[in-house]
Design a protein that fits this description.
With 171 residues, the chain is mainly α. It has helices at residues 2-27, 34-46, 57-82, 88-95, 106-118, 122-132, 138-145, 149-169.
């Protein structure tokens, strides 16, 4: 009985995988999470006891995806609210380069950093570039981005955390 359910979910997911990833890509701040959330939809669909009771499987699939977008937004908000942007120790720790197990070629490291920076929302990416490449102050960055210095600190904290996680994970 489990085999037909799994086959049904696999067929549904295979048919709509690209549309599902595009759905997430349009709605997420961190675009790299689209594939992970699409996979989570698949896993949630596998947990359904009787998929035969679903009248419109495609609509149900995207309803699950919509719920995941909401859950992701709530988690992002909670994380942003819990950040202490005035904690200089936290920013200093985030700014430290992680230790890599294997030595990387400098060109590979720079290319990887470019990829990771491209995953950031535009204002976070701009803030981190203005801070570390152009050595601008929080106030100068705030003026350029049209936000408060407090928001600049949030952008930098978010960007540094993202870069640290993605550079370590290499994925």
């Amino acid at each position: 009985m489990a085999e037909p359910k799994n086959a049904f979910v696999e067929r549904l997911f295979a048919r709509h995988r690209n549309a599902l990833q595009a759905f997430f890509f349009r709605r997420l701040r961190i675009k790299a999470d689209a594939a992970d959330l699409a996979q989570e939809v698949y896993l949630r669909m596998l947990r359904i006891r009787d998929p035969g009771t679903i009248r419109n499987p495609e609509a149900y699939l995207f309803a699950v995806a919509g719920n995941l977008v909401k859950e992701n937004a709530i988690a992002d908000r909670r994380q942003a609210e819990s950040m202490d942007v005035d904690d200089t120790n936290g920013l200093q720790l985030l700014a430290e380069l992680p230790d890599f197990d294997a030595p990387l070629d400098t060109d590979q490291l720079v290319e990887r950093l470019r990829e990771v920076l491209q995953q950031l929302p535009p204002k976070c990416r701009a803030a981190i570039i203005l801070q570390y490449h152009y050595d601008l102050s929080y106030q100068e960055i705030a003026d350029r981005l049209g936000v408060s210095t407090h928001m600049v600190k949030k952008y930098l904290t978010q960007a540094l955390g993202h870069c640290r996680r993605r550079m370590v994970s290499q994925g």
